[in-house]
């Protein structure tokens, strides 16, 4: 979609804005993202080499190891985390990393769940922002 | 979809509220706040009692994990239920095995100490189900570590949701967990059937193929509950390897192997009386393709040089060592190959008692405990080479985590390749 608002369910509240990085395939942060740089390092992932840092990360859900919450938390500490995470299916492990970041560092990317049709409508590369109510605004 | 405030929607007991308000110390309050927030995420309307926990958060991934553990220790954290620890970042018995910087070593060690200070049992293994008393059928627990979760749910019939670092210790400190997901009967029904019955019997009963089967299942079923139909005679270590692979390629936390696992005496029982959402006939071609995806090194014939052989993800059991020993005594690894087996102290005792630990070391095998080569700097070979393994989990994570190309093979192929210094395939494995 070009321009508009999508209402999501807040999993972990917060605000964040940046260009959309849209992953069609799920990604395990553990073994899949280097928290030092924010880059995707899973060589089997089609977007390997791209950075999640400062992006509104639109992905279906996480997969694999339960250590992904640690990698997201470490990303928050190092300033390489996504600006926001927008999911299509509930992912407790990424939400947990964000919830702990809020407890420990008093900041975290918002994690928001969108309905499938809305999630499908968010295009790669557009500027987007998420607010505390779970509203995703797309520039355009 | 509106925002909800879980502090208003989750039903809490008096004890939950007391913990939340700090009556049981600041650490219990932090833990309860995180549990309530996560109950909101999962949509849980209450918490339930757990009788045990297994903690993944003791592995060093960066300073934030230490910050969190120190926050809990400073807040007076003590676990309320029997709690075991997953691998740490160091082999505490053989500290010389650590190849990282002194700073990283000190932090990894401090993190392990923090969890010990909270009263956890220091078993340091990703296969707690093979070392300590197991949860019983139907028992509610809070386990982290993806392979341990899938084993507890599938092979033991215990009940844990798919927990990760941090919430694991919050559950242990409070003795509570959100009443969601696989804790609840209705979410444990099989959803996708993988039908292996058309495969030749030799493939259906081949234990070395179970990681490839798990990998394929994880890829195809994502976060649904798979039912495996037609696997034969899979023993416990085979199910452990299958589950670990399925939890690497997908978010699998429970599988039912019909006729093998406790909640699946029959297909009907595995499906909980319902219908399968999807029915997937698995062919030999699917399995071959799954095997290919487990390897990242060019399919390479005999010319492919092998730099490292890594075994033991999940940690090698005594039975797996008993299988390895006669093979490797005939064909010791070449001097050019680093051969590492990751295991726990229970298996180490087994090796020491039989005199096999010295025998393995004399053959050039490194036996590492308490940790694992894909999560800690243990390998001495510089990254960029080729690592061979019989573990689907190592095959999945080694490229990203330690920078090796991987080749997946059977245990016997791994031993033969290490002996030759080059990839050796066994044509008889595939009829």
Keywords:
A: alpha/beta; Glucose Oxidase, domain 1; two-stranded antiparallel sheet; 3 helices; 10 strands; 27% strand; B: alpha/beta; Aconitase, domain 3; 4-stranded parallel beta sheet
List the helices and strands and how they pair.
The complex is a heterodimer of chains A (140) and B (431).
Chain A: E1 4-7, E2 9-12, E3 16-22, E4 33-34, E5 39-40, E6 56-59, H1 68-78, E7 84-87, H2 92-105, E8 111-113, H3 116-121, E9 127-130, E10 135-138
Parallel strand pairs in A: 3-6, 6-7, 7-8
Antiparallel strand pairs in A: 1-10, 2-8, 3-9, 4-5, 9-10
Chain B: H1 6-9, H2 14-20, H3 26-42, E1 47-49, E2 53-55, H4 63-74, E3 83-85, H5 102-117, E4 142-143, H6 146-156, H7 167-174, E5 176-178, E6 192-195, H8 201-204, H9 210-221, E7 226-229, H10 236-249, E8 256-257, H11 267-270, E9 278-281, H12 284-294, E10 308-316, H13 318-330, E11 338-343, H14 345-353, H15 356-362, E12 365-369, E13 386-389, H16 392-402, E14 405-408, H17 411-420
Q: Name the chain pair with the biggest interface and residue counts per chain.
A: A-B, 52 and 50 residues
The largest β sheet of chain B comes out as:
5 strands, parallel
Assign the CATH class of the largest domain in chain B: Alpha Beta
Q: CATH homologous superfamily of chain A, by name?
A: Phosphohistidine domain
| Helical segment count of chain B | 17
State the CATH architecture of the largest domain in chain B.
2-Layer Sandwich
